[in-house]
Every structure is written in C-alpha cells, then in structure tokens.
Design brief:
single chain; 72 residues; mainly alpha; Methane Monooxygenase Hydroxylase, Chain G, domain 1; 89% helix
Amino acid sequence: MRGIIRMIEDDRYCIDVLTQMQAVKAALARAESEILKNHAKTCIHDSVVEGNAGDIEAKVGELVDLFDKLKR
C-alpha cells in the first residue's frame, strides 16, 4: 500500500497505479483463500472431530456471515 501511495504522490501514470492496485487486490484474494482453507482444515475440522455441536454451529454461522459480507 505504501508503494501505491508513493506512486500517487509522485504523480505516476494512472494506468501504472491501477495495475499495481490490481496486483495488491489479487495478492489479498490469494491470502484470503489460504486463510479460509486453513480455517476449514483446523478450526472447523477440530470442532467436528470433537463433536461439539454448539461450536460447529457457531463456526458455520461465522462462515455464512462472511459469505454474506462478500456478496455486498
């Protein structure tokens, strides 16, 4: 982000700034995907293995809320 801010402050060509912004968004999307996969492999998996119905319900609710936010 600092690089993008610096590009704007340096009055860099708009397309170059937009290209860099797209790269940052893509990197964030990849990180988001990896964190979500890790959450499913660990937190949700552990709740299922432990058979903790309340915890499973809470974790599923968190995912539903997250996906609702993504649709906005």
